[in-house]
Amino acid sequence: MNCDRIARAYRWLEYLAFGHELERRRLRFLPEIASARRALLLGDGDGRFLARFASASDASVDYVELSAAMLELARTRAGNRAAFHPADALTYPFAPHSHDLIVTHFFLDCFNASELNMLIARVREAACPGARWLISEFRQPRWASPLLAALYLFFRVTTGLRTNRLVDHRPILRRHGFRLVAEETSRAGLLASELWELPCGSTLRRTP
Questions:
Q1: pLDDT tens-digit readout, 133-174
Q2: CA 43 to chain centre
Q3: Reduced to 3 states, what is the DSSP secondary structure of residue 170?
Q4: Which pTM value belongs to this model?
């Protein structure tokens, strides 16, 4: 999806819908990732997390974002603290085994099951042994189905989002060798902060 049309209003739309809770989810495990050396931030939008991360860490950052308007906002907030790449994460040529931190905040929900599997497989190749993956994401408790349906409709109209339902990323991550090391949920299970790790020597699990 491309957020150019709503880039400047996105922050305030987020606050209107969720207050500061999405921001709290993004920052929940910031101290645990501050020692990273090279970070890959995918679809992170307007740069609010990037600015906080850059103030807490000396890591070099590759910032991949499809929306030119979001990328410009991120560049304004973080200046030269990142290498900015205007690209689609599904096709951007990641260097193999090059990053010890991957960050995706409210980004995995933009993909259908096959796209998500492709993305996670590509990110796994970009991750070095022992890499961590910081994720903030929606979950789907039964009570939240109408809310999530409304959110998907909004983003389909405003950004051209192609998928219309939330895919659970957790079994796909496990299949590709990542393990969950910490998590926290809020808003009655609707929102989650997760920290995953790619153990040294992990292998892809083949499904029958």
A1: 999 999 999 999 999 999 999 999 999 999 999 999 999 999
A2: 6
A3: helix
A4: 0.94
The structure tokens listed for 148 are 């999530």
201 phi-psi bin (left φ>0, alpha ψ -120 to 50, beta other): left
Are the beta carbons of 43 and 115 closer than 8 angstroms? no
Which H or E run includes 135?
Answer: strand 127-138
Distance CA 137, CA 114 (A): 18
Residues in contact with 208: Cβ distance below 8 Å, sequence separation at least 6, in sequence order: none
Q: What six digits make up the tokens of 199?
A: 């153990």
Kindly state the helix (H) or strand (E) to which residue 45 belongs, with its residue range: none
First-last CA distance in the chain: 32
Which CATH superfamily is 4-197 part of?
Answer: Vaccinia Virus protein VP39 (3.40.50.150)
* Nearest C-alpha neighbor of 89 from the set 59, 116, 114: 116
Would you kindly state where each structural domain of the chain is located, as residue ranges? 4-197
